[in-house]
Design goal:
21% of the residues lie in helices and 44% in strands. The strands form 3 sheets. Strands 1-2-3-4 form a 4-stranded antiparallel β-sheet, covered by helices on one side. 19% of the residues are buried. It is built from 2 helices and 12 strands, in the order αββββββββαββββ.
Amino acid sequence: MKTKLIILVTTLALLTAVSCKQANKEVVKEQIENSSEDKTTRKSFATLTWNDTRFDVNIQNDTLFIQPDGLEVSNDSFFHPILGQTVVGAAIVDLDGDEHAEILVFLTSDGSGSYGNVIAYSVNNGKSMSQITYNAEGDSEEIKQGYMGHDSFSVKEGKLERSFPIYKDNDTNANPTGGKRTVLYKLEKGPNSKNLVVDQISTQE
């Protein structure tokens, strides 16, 4: 009787394991199928090209996707949650003179402030991509003085250009009267990543 009980328990355990394994396969299959479907529903914002390499900038469900194609080793997609932000532009440029591209995506926060942000990647010798560090929150007091958002971004002479209006103490959000400040950023290699660092600050009254 004891032997029969052991055989019965073992059989049930094997059947349960097989059943769970099959269920897991179905879940994985469903995830892959859903991922493929999601890819086709992404909204294309821009397609950037550099020699034989293409970078698709797509948006879906408050998520930004950057998909390279043509890199030698890794063409993995990179994604960033962007809830509360709007993508307003994208550019491709060689910021450090190594003949490989940097991909820049420009965003502003939703609402009246329109505070700017940059999501950026650098191509590693044509083989893969790594994220570039951009930290506007670490701005110096010279940059912060009179700053209330409304950033705009562009690329000028191989550098990232950021401009915004300057507010005086009694200015309303809709009527800045302090002129405009422009900040140029250059790309430098840090210990852990490449960084966008301030290169020049200018103010126009």
